[in-house]
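Ticket #4471: structure output looks truncated?

Reporter: J.K.
Steps to reproduce: submitted the chain below (258 residues) through the standard prediction queue, then opened the result file.
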Amino acid sequence: MGKRRRDDRRGKYKQNPWILTILGMALCGLIFAVSAQTLGERARTAASGDLSSVVAKTVDDVAVWEAVASRTQEQINNLVKREATVPVELRGDEALAIGQDDIKGSGLVVKLWDVQNPQLVTSRNLEPDDLVVHQQDVEAVINALWAGGAKAVSVQGHRILSTSQIRCVGNVIVVQSKTYSPPYEVAAIGDIAQLQEGLRKSQGVQIYQEYVRAIGLGWSVEEKAALTLPAVVEIPKLSHAQITGDGGNGGQKGEKEG
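Returned output as attached by the reporter:
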């Protein structure tokens, strides 16, 4: 009986292997959890440090390129200013196009003037505007001469360029801000036969000549063996829009002479 009691006591206090297994697994899990948390914190710290360094480097790079862009823009501005102060010497077609030089040669002189008999207004049921030369009449002659190969054209002694202005104000016209009364004189240098052909083919000139025949609007064409069209007194400066204020973010637009 005594042996049994000793066996009973050993059985009573003997360690259960399942308990040891569970405790071991719990301890390993705790170790893994602590390790994972530590590694995660280290990874976050490292990542945070890398991001900060990337941002800092990017900021430095942007500053460098902004400085390069600023220096380049300053160089461009200096070149533009320097070129603007250097007189441009043009020759040939370029000088001809901007009217820089006088031009001589053979050509045509076309004259237009108003009806000399104002009584036609009442006697033939016409409007007063029918009896006067208008802006479109002068422009029709100019365009016809260009179409006929004119090398240069002038109106009332003003060389006509792409920037020239001709406006009708009542019974007078304004050429380059100066007012003129009829007769209006349009001169062109070029091949005379081709200039005549240009006038003949122009629809605007054909309509004007219908009024010449019907009510007596003035019209004459004179051939000239030697004509001189003067150079432009002042070459016009072109203007263009530019961004002002805050560089385009809601800023206003203005004009700048070029």
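Triage note (M.O.): checked the attachment and the full token line is present. The first strand starts at residue 103 and ends at 113.
Status: closed, working as intended.
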